[in-house]
Structure formats: C-alpha cells, structure tokens
Amino acid sequence: MKLKSGFTQVSHCMTLVRKHDYEHYLCTLLLPKPVQPVVFALRSYNIEVALIKDTVSEVAIGKMKLTFWRDAINTIFKKGSNDKLPDHPVVNLLAQAVKECNLNKIWLSRLLDARETDLTRTSYHQTKELEDYCENTSSSLFYLTLEALGIKDVHSDHVASHIGKAQGIVTLLRAAGYYRSKRQVLIPLDILMRHGSSQEEFLRGEATPSLINSTYDLASLANAHLLKAISLADKIPKGAAARVFLPAVATRSFLEDLERVDFNPYSERLRLRRPSLPMTLLWKAFRNKYY
C-alpha cells in the first residue's frame, strides 16, 4: 500500500493534524508506515469539516463549505467520471487513499452529514443523540482506518464503535470551557434535568454539586464505552488492529485527570498536556495494547 502522493500533500495533512489533533498525530505515527498517509488524509478531512462550524458567521456559509466537500466526495467515488477534483491537498490525498484502499463512501458521507446537522445544534436533548453523533463522526474514522489496514472483523468494529463514542464524549467534555465562551452547553439536557441542573448553571462556571454530578454522569458513560472496548481486546486480530485504537489511551488519561479535579470540567489543570503521553503511546504500541 503505497500512495503515489507528493510530499507537499502528505506534509500539509500531517501539519494540519499536528496543529489541531495532536494526540491523533502521535497515534498515526505509530501505525504501519504505508498506511500513515491514508490516515493523515482521513484525519485532515475530519478537521476540515469540523472547523467549518467555528469559522463561519452564518449557517448558510457553513452549508456552502460543506457542499464543497460533499461534491468532492461524490466526484472521488464517481467511477469513470471525467470531473476534475478541486486543487486541494486534502481532497487529492483523500482521493488517492480511497482508490488505493477501497475505502467505503458511507463512512465519509456519514461523517459529513453529522457535521452538517451540527451546524445548527445548540444542545442535545437526549444522551442518545450525543452517542449517535459520536458514532457518526469519531467511530466512522476508526472504521475507515480499519479498512485502510484491510482489517475486516466484527469484534474490531465493535471496539471502534465504543472507543469512538467514548472519544466523542471526552472531546465534548474537554471543550466545555470553549463552549461556555460561546454561551453554549452541550451536556445533554436529560442529564442536566436528572440532577436538577441547568444550562445557565454551566454557563456561570461554578463547581456546584449538580454541575459536578452532571459531568460525572457523562464521564461515566464515556468510561463505560471504554471498558466495553477493553473487554473485547482479546478478540480482535493480533498486530496492527490494536494500534488503530491507541487514541483510547489519551481518552482514558483525560478521564483520569477529570476524576483528579473532582469532575470540574472548567479546571485549569485539564488544559495541561501530559508530557508522558508520547512515551506511553510508544510503550502501548510496542505491547500491542490500547489500554
């Protein structure tokens, strides 16, 4: 598996992932070298569409930008088409990855659909809505990575689903301070109501018992998905499959850090990057473990 890609395209994608998704940058470097450009293309695609919501002032503009990506994906998968792809490093590298690895369009499209729905989202009413969003975004990227490695295994798919959900929930918790600055609270409303909390309480940023309990519930849900993924570790194929799921190490580390600050999602300590993470990931990769 060797993409006929120019150095500039791969370098662009690597730089993009390193800037916006450092943990996945480290994890991708620990995958087999031939597949690394593919995964950097996939992660770059995710970053490009994820950033749209935060970089546009109007929903209509966001939808126009997503249309660019939808048209690009459709052109990539249009067999026998003479349509020219846009001159974009991520699009071009992604096109090569799709062709070389026979990637499934459904996961790329599902991720795009989820991002489009997210353009107008201001809250989640039910926890399942959040889990579905995480499945459609984070889990889809794991499914694509498994495809890139040629891994077709039902247990690996189950692990991908659970780790994707755990990672998506943790991403939301990590961004609690950012969302607060935008006057948004994405903790599902059913969890807030269970503890007598409210969005206004989260916007005030006070570590009240109901805020802490709501955060604890969401963190516990992420941890439950991680534990389920770990319980399947002995059933997935030996070798590269475990490395696909290395991002679970960072997800678990954040949950441990969150517990240390008593589940206060606004604690400044959660902003600190663990300096030991690169070595931890290397050690886990060496042992073919993701927990």
UniProtKB/TrEMBL annotation:
Q: Please provide the record's keywords in A-Z order.
A: Carotenoid biosynthesis
E.C. designation(s)? 2.5.1.32
List the catalysed reactions.
2 (2E,6E,10E)-geranylgeranyl diphosphate = 15-cis-phytoene + 2 diphosphate
Using the record, list the residue span of the signal peptide; answer none if the entry has no such feature.
Answer: none
Q: Which GO terms describe its biological process?
A: carotenoid biosynthetic process
Which InterPro entries did the record assign? Answer: Isoprenoid_synthase_dom_sf, Squ/phyt_synthse
Q: Which domain of life is it from?
A: Eukaryota
- Can the keyword Manganese be found in this entry's annotation? no
Q: This protein is called what? A: 15-cis-phytoene synthase
Can you name the source organism? Amphimedon queenslandica (Sponge)
